[in-house]
Amino acid sequence: MTETSAGPRKQGRKGPGGLTIDRVFTTPGVHPYDEVTWDRRDVVQTNWKTGETIFEQRGVEFPTGWSMNATTIVTTKYFRGAVGTEQREHSLRQLIDRVVLSYVRAGTQHGYFATDADAEVFEHELTWMLLHQLFSFNSPVWFNVGTPSAQQVSACFILSVDDTMDSILNWYREEGMIFKGGSGAGLNLSRIRSSKELLSSGGTASGPISFMRGADASAGTIKSGGATRRAAKMVVLDVDHPDIEEFVETKAREEDKIRALRDAGFDMDLGGKDIVSVQYQNANNSVRVSDEFMQAVADGTEFGLRARTDGSVIGTVHAKGLFRKIAEAAWACADPGIQYDSTINDWHTSPESGRINASNPCSEYMHLDNSSCNLASLNLLKFLREDDTFDVERFVKAVELVITAMDISICFADFPTQAIGETTRAFRQLGIGYANLGALLMATGHGYDSAGGRALAAAITSLMTGTAYKRSAELAAVVGPYDGYAQNAEGHQRVMRKHAAANDDIRTLHVMDAEIHAAATTAWAEGNKLGARNGWRNAQASVLAPTGTIGFMMDCDTTGVEPDFSLVKFKKLVGGGSMQIVNQTIPRALAKLGYATETAEAIVEYIAEHGHVIDAPGLKPEHYEVFDCAMGERAISPMGHVRMMAAVQPFISGAISKTVNMPEETTVEDVEKLYFDAWSMGIKALAIYRDNCKVGQPLSDAKAKKAPAPSPEVPGPGRAVRKRLPRQRDSKTTSFTVGGADGYITAGSYPGDGLGEVFLKLGKQGSTLAGVMDAFSIAVSVALQYGVPLETYVQKFTNMRFEPAGMTDDPDVRMAQSMIDYIFRRLALDYLPFETRASLGIYTTAERQRQLETGSYEPIVAAEELDTEDDGQAPTLQTAPSSAPSAAPAEVHSSAELMDLFQGRAADAPLCLNCGIKMRPSGSCHVCEGCGSTSGCS
């Protein structure tokens, strides 16, 4: 895409010309919808606890490459219209068209495109990227754009409150309206005078803590009035506020109350009927600390608390003592978090228009009071080529397209308050970000907590934000800079230079990150040059959001800046039931690290059984770090998370939504050190969560380590029962040739119930080989009849190498590494369902041909025949075998619950109010794998 200076003036034009949009992803004359294969699916969602059907829509249309999980989330969350009526959306085409065509119309109306042909190319390119899951807008876009509803596109809001009763009551009202719409908001209460100051009438002020009670009750009431997630809110107080100590201890005291009530027999679990009796449970609290305060902590000196009315010092605290109280409270109940005020405002592009005082509830959006930010996230794994190189050119073009679309949306967007609308239109804050960083690092053989992983993440983040601001400068030449730019030109340019200087400080370690870093350096240099001439269209360009629901929409393995959650995942089947599978990024990572197929197979099998890589056969200890995850035996250390945040923070306009989980044995001193180190490393905000620090979580005393093995007198599992084949049964005989040697497979089946016996004939009757094969056949047949799954044999015996080997006469298995390898591949093709074969990398010729034509191995079947789930991922390189999926235990309903089972203890996480299953962390929130609901972030 390039900037032009020609073309007729269009409505809304502030500058000459418009953008010329180049085709990168699409083909001239071919609509993106015509390049994919579509199928019909049924979406039925139930609450596993009650058995109640909570949603049902049949015959929805999606590309075959989309997983059933993504299908369910889009259908239930984003399709508009009453279910069961003709007005209800039923196809992904309708959803994408509703949004994209609204953007194209607005872009054309406001003069963004040089010609109508450029507008059409923009439409096709944006459609292609959404269709192929390269990126997604935040949830409010899918909820609202193109519908009769208000065209709200923002998910993040910052409010303000002054020291007047009118302002405080208006805060309640504005916050309530935002909660009613399913969004969240944050604000700073530091303008409200403290309880140590006098009112004009002569009485003593109530202080901000008392007013927090009313706001908390309002949020809780709106939640209980029918919302499917809690009201998300952030409350911030400056560290020099005279009521800061009471603020710090507020939620810790309430946690003590919860424990006392629980011990007295009251129901204080999350969602319990008595939990509403405690206060301050509907907000995240954060303390705003300045460099002055942090230096006083380092020096062990006193720190002044200032009156809100005149700024005079009305008391002092020992800085280190107050910092200790902050750490103690966070250790006890995970609140408060910390926001580093001086760092935040040092990176502020619009300082002349006001300070940055607060953030949205998840702490990634930080800008002026009474403002909002709309978000979009890129799926990083989609830019990793099959040869494990990063497609820099396509990534750059994707960022340019997405930023252009996001800016267009502000032209037609509606906002919850007039003040927010005025500020957002004047500063046009955007928040491009990404998901799947953790999966990308693992796939490329980088440990999340490694110098190489941080260098790659920093380079990608720098390229993303540098390209976004370069596009913003190009847009400024076409439709003008943001209204507040002239007043803030010096400050904005200063921050752009800071970003570019931080980019120069990146130290690359490998060819991949060096190539990305070189492109980022070019983007910053060219963008800053354009910006100095044109200004910038946007005061802010990037944030790193949780990407919970939209991450599932894009079929991402990891959200936001997070590492992978676990090495073993839970997968739900459409027709009922579930299975557990090994993370599909692992085989690719093992191939990247140079492991042979047989070794990789053994490693994957070990992970499937144990849930971790410690002592996996053949895996080098120095490679363990590549497979470290958020949970498990080798969970990434708290400082590992902080180091990754510090690596990418200099290249983010806003901040990073992330809660650093700490083990239960963490000390208060550990929390103190983490909060202090985060400040010294230049992070803008940080929150921690110590395992099991809260009572109001679904723990059920399961946090104890795995129960001891049962004593000898406890009976074990029942004896296996042999299920014999009927006297007459169907059988199939297959002749084959492998490397010039002939053989026969005779397979007998249960009536409509799968394989029950195998007879193999190799060599002459009476020979040693024939006798061995007869014995082997009997052993396999008896085991099949005792219930050993066929996929177990396929997993064990495929890829076994010995002579004869080589070419076969079977069109579905052209090469075999041995006769045994061929036999069990053939049996898999004849008797295993598609999903199981796909996880093993075994496909028919027709399926491989279909993958070349459509990008998916999936069979094309009618909706009524869909009884298993589409895998939904783009085909993974079959350089190493995947583990065969196995049935998930009946008590498991999510990956979080599966990891609880592996670890023998329950992690602290809320239950989904829709599905009843345990959610998993997503930034500073939690997200449900089943339905995409979040605990507060869109």
UniProtKB/TrEMBL annotation:
Residues 727-830 form the TSCPD domain. Its EC number is 1.17.4.1. InterPro entries: RdRp_reductase_class-2 (IPR050862), RNR_2_N (IPR013678), RNR_lg_C (IPR000788), RNR_NrdJ/NrdZ (IPR013344), TSCPD_dom (IPR024434). Residues 880-890 have a biased composition (Low complexity). The keyword Disulfide bond applies. It catalyses: a 2'-deoxyribonucleoside 5'-diphosphate + [thioredoxin]-disulfide + H2O = a ribonucleoside 5'-diphosphate + [thioredoxin]-dithiol. GO terms for molecular function: ribonucleoside-diphosphate reductase activity, thioredoxin disulfide as acceptor. CDD domains: RNR_II_dimer. It comes from the Bacteria. Residues 154-689 form the Ribonucleotide reductase large subunit C-terminal domain. Coiled coil: none annotated. Pfam families: Ribonuc_red_2_N (PF08471), Ribonuc_red_lgC (PF02867), TSCPD (PF12637). Residues 1-20, 700-734, 866-891 are annotated as: Disordered. SUPFAM superfamilies: PFL-like glycyl radical enzymes (SSF51998). Keywords: Cobalamin, Cobalt, Disulfide bond, DNA synthesis, Nucleotide-binding, Oxidoreductase. Its cofactor is adenosylcob(III)alamin. Residues 42-133 form the Ribonucleotide reductase class II vitamin B12-dependent N-terminal domain. It is an enzyme of class 1 (oxidoreductase). Belongs to the ribonucleoside diphosphate reductase class-2 family. Catalyzes the reduction of ribonucleotides to deoxyribonucleotides. May function to provide a pool of deoxyribonucleotide precursors for DNA repair during oxygen limitation and/or for immediate growth after restoration of oxygen. This is Vitamin B12-dependent ribonucleotide reductase.
